[in-house]
Amino acid sequence: MTLHVHKYGGTSVGTADKIQNVAKKLVGEKKTTGNDLVVVVSAMSGETNRMTDLAKTMQQVPSAKQMDVLLSTGEQVTIALLCMALEELGQAAVSYTGGQVKIITDDAHSKARIEEIHTANVQADLQGGKIVVVAGFQGVTEDGAITTLGRGGSDTTAVALAAALKADECRIYTDVDGVYTTDPRVEPKARRLDKITFEEMLEMASLGSKILQIRSVEFAGKYNVPLRVLSTFVEGDGTLITYEDEDEGMEKALISGIAFNRDEAKVTLAGVPDMPGVASAILQPISAANIEIDMIVQNIAEDKTTDFTFTVHRNDYEKTMQILQDICNQLGAEKVSGDDKIVKVSIVGVGMRSHAGIASQMFTALAEEGINIRMISTSEIKISVVVDEKYLELAVRTLHESFGLSAE
Ligand code: ASP
Ligand code: MG
Fold it and tell me: Which ligand 1 atom is nearest residue 9's CA?
């Protein structure tokens, strides 16, 4: 028996009509394919944000534990409504919260990790011909406390269930019809990709493509769950995320996509004494404040001092500047400076691995448009540059064109 796990995000279940539409699709799919179906749903669009705002009216910083109790209700609403819609169409269905399935997580509230999934009850229901509807984004600790998996966590629920149930495919239904070469709102000539590798998708997702929660892609790669992103509203095959096919040369193109991230800021500590332990002395307090660091550049020392620059999320800019000022005083460094009007633009592609000259093509294309590069970082399948915010669109379009990604 073929088993598919489907996941419908908030916009796909955002209204009563849309939930009924999903129910119809599922019934149709079950009739035509005979597949077993497990369906993971998100909260109706806007609900998680609405509840987050509501919580803030009670307490300035509500505990993660209570936030989980609150936010997990969003998905619980959707599972009940979808089951009602399915039953109304004559399709037997059963709803499960994360706790009812026994999606066991650690106790890191608001960003819990799944440790184990009990599948016996779900399997019995599938055998009984039911469509199994599971609340995404949530789990339960060994002690029975409700947890959530972080924003966008329903994707991870779907992939984890697919892995645990050894599903044939995990389909993420959303409001876009697949993964594109870049964001079509920035470059209208962007094309849908038929296939992309897990590795590339991770780079695209972490750089702000925002289609899938990053952790779900990691999970799918680790457990080899074929993952497909497709539209709830338009027919199509979407984009399959899978392993690199060495023989076929799955992606013939060198570059699969242009990713970007608008919410970047960069900070510099200048005139830092050049001696062992300094990088750690700078970064330790930053990570202790739970601030994630992305690119790091340390210049060659001149006069026994060096400049140390790194990027953080724009929301963490003020806090980072403050911490850095303290470090500056402690280390006797020269000064702190920063810029929160920068963005990161990256070219991504497994094809890059076997080709030289990609970086120079990228830098030449940007130079020809007069775009100044402020920072550079590279990995095997990605080259990223930091540029001024005002150049974001131009940089993305220029690179999209230069690497032949634009549709005819
Ligand atoms: N409702 C949660 C969120 O908005 C989880 C999800 O939709 O995946 O982040
Ligand atoms: Mg989502």
Answer: 7
Going by DSSP bridges, is the β-strand pair 195-197/335-348 parallel, antiparallel, or unpaired? unpaired
Same domain, 157 and 302: no
* DSSP state letter for 352: G
Four-residue CA torsion sign, 329, 298, 260, 380: negative
Same domain, 162 and 14: yes
Please work out whether the CB of residue 154 comes within 6 Å of at least one atom of ligand 1: yes
Q: Rounded to whole angstroms, what are the CA distances from 277 to 258, 283, 297, 331?
A: 36, 10, 15, 11
- Does the beta carbon of 111 sit less than 6 angstroms from any atom of ligand 1? no
Q: Which tens digits make up the pLDDT trace of 66-86? A: 999 999 999 999 999 999 999
Which pLDDT score, from 0 to 100, does residue 251 have?
45
- Domain encompassing residue 79: 3-175
CB-ligand 1 contact for 8 (6 Å cutoff):
no
**How many structural domains are present in the chain?**
2
The pLDDT, as a whole number, for residue 134 is: 98
Q: Which ligand lies nearest to the CA atom of residue 148 in the structure? A: 1
User: Where residue 210 falls among pLDDT bands split at 50, 70, 90?
Assistant: confident
- Would the CB of 10 count as within 6 Å of ligand 1? yes
CA-nearest residue for atom 8, ligand 1, is 152
Ligand nearest to the CA of 47: 1
Between the CA of 150 and the centroid of ligand 1 the distance, in Å, is 8
Q: How many Å lie between the centroid of ligand 1 and the Cα of residue 270?
A: 41
Q: Is 221 in the pocket of ligand 1 (CB under 6 A)?
A: no
Q: Is 27 found in the same domain as 167? A: yes
Q: Is 218 helix (H, G, I), strand (E, B) or coil?
A: helix
pTM of the full structure: 0.86
Domain containing residue 374: CATH number: 3.30.2130.10
Residue 283's contacts (CB-CB under 8 Å, 6 or more residues apart) are 293, 296, 310
Alpha-carbon separation of residue 107 from 114, 205, 217 (angstroms):
10, 26, 22
CA distance 244 to 171: 19
For 347-382, the pLDDT digits (tens) are 999 988 888 889 999 999 999 999 999 999 999 999
Q: Which atom of ligand 1 lies at the shortest distance from residue 43's CA?
A: 1
Mean per-residue pLDDT of the chain: 94
CA distance 187 to 181: 9
As a whole number of angstroms, the distance between CA 28 and CA 18 comes to 15
Is the distance from the beta carbon of residue 43 to the nearest atom of ligand 1 less than 6 Å?
A: yes
Mark whether 41 and 156 lie in a shared domain. yes
Residue 208 CB: number of other CB atoms within 10 A? Answer: 17
